What does this fold into?
Amino acid sequence: MTYRPLGRTELTVSTICLGTMTYGEQNTEADAFAQMDYALEHGVNFFDTAELYAIPPKAETQGRTETYIGNWFKARGTRHKIILASKVAGRDRGGMTWLRKDGSSPEVNKAQMSEALEGSLRRLQTDCIDLYQIHWPDRPMPWGSNPTAFKAKAYEGSENSMLEALETLQSFVKQGKIRFIGLSNESSWGTMRFLQLAEQQGLPRVETVQNAYNLLNRTYETGLAEISMRENVGLLAFSPLAQGYLTGKYLNGARPAGARSTLFNRGQRYETPNAGPAIHAYVDLAHELGWKPEELALSFV
It folds into this structure.
């Protein structure tokens, strides 16, 4: 395992981070324990989760992923060995009123962020989260927040101030409940605005951005890559296998038993007219080179 610095923090994390969003939906607690044991044994010291998980989001499974991780920490005594990342949900556009105790629609404001953090700390059975991220923006944005074209209608609607979010995160740092902050599904403008506000107001600096990055989605390269390089804001690349599509297992409409798109039918972003031919060509190339498609895709990232 290789290790790299996390943003400008003093933390050093494994190049591979264990994503956990299937825990409590596709994976049982026993499955989760086995995966976390295996990851730690192989040098992975970085786990990522969120208050929203398991995925797909629903009231019955919300928070279950963090609960499994917390139970593993308690059973194994391993909290001190893991750099732990979690997330607070962004502004809801789809009726997730079950996420907050009072039935409010989720927003990134002080009251809701405080409720979210306390819930995560309780489920994770820890007194501090190392990297606390805003899961997606509070302001109106296309999902993923890094589109290839700006369409004004997608940006219409209400929002809370980024300053309030940063001031709230600063209070969490001062209380010792989080160490560092990050963003997720964020745009170039949003990232730079958070950095500008932090510098102007003496607030915590964004250390990371967790966005999709894979051979089918390289939008990070158009603007955010320069920010990562010049501002030393680390990329936490999620979905390196494009939800499994780059393995080739869904080619020609195949739906293997137990696979994510078979179970949940949520892979439309990788089922566009151009995606199928691109995946075919990629899988053929991998085989021609003597690589498994998933190995080559991970190596690219």
Remarks:
- The CA atoms of residues 162 and 194 lie 7 Å apart.
- The beta strands are 3-5, 12-14, 18-19, 46-48, 83-88, 129-134, 178-184, 206-212, 234-238.
- The chain has a mean pLDDT of 95.
- The longest helix spans residues 110-124.
